[in-house]
Amino acid sequence: PSGTRTPVSRTAARHSRIRVATALAFRCDRERAALAAALAPAPAAGEEATIEVGGDDFLARLILDLGGTPLQVSAAGLSALFGAPTSLGDDATRAARAARALCGATRAGRAGIDTGRVMLRRDAGGGLGASGEAVRRAGELADEAAAGEIRVTAAAARQLAGRYELAEAMTREDGGRVLTLRSPRAGAAPSNAVLLGRDRELTTLAA
Q1: 23: phi then psi, degrees, rounded to nearest 5
Q2: Which of 43, 51, 80, 127 is the most buried (most CB within 10 A)?
Q3: Separation between Cα atoms, residue 86 and residue 141, nearest integer Å
Q4: 203: buried, middle or exposed (CB in 10 Å: 19+, 13-18, 0-12)?
Q5: For the whole model, what pTM was predicted?
Q6: CA 129, CA 119: separation in Å to the nearest integer?
Q7: CA distance linking residue 58 with residue 73, whole number of Å
């Protein structure tokens, strides 16, 4: 009937929330073994290596060490969030550091970064999942990037401009600017500001 709304599960609503976060997507195609060997730390004397070469642990650990949350890790790359469920204040910078580490360890690795709204949800086992424009755009940028390139949206670039050199890459059909992340700016001070809630950023992105 006209005007009838489909009821929303209270359980689903209770376990979902919207936040502003930075999404990272990385594609590495068939170079997983070489990437694992390059990033895995050498074990201490008498200690066995804890990261399986070619496995998923080394990718997830890199993201976790930089304060991010792995979402999906596969033989083709990964997707991750920085700033959700908890923001450390410099989430875009941490995502950029992760992207540079991953791309720097491969010949054909490429990445995409976007800052925007994400819908967080917990599955029955307590695992974190996410969807939304930022996750989608980061994946599209990674797919479109050239080998070794890190593409970022204008929203992410605003968070990175003081710490990294950025170059215009293209303008999307919807008018959105896409930039390429270059090297860190000389003398850029590390960010230690912690932003709680990020309501002001959400309002700015919504404008």
Answers
A1: -100, 135
A2: 80
A3: 24
A4: exposed
A5: 0.73
A6: 8
A7: 10
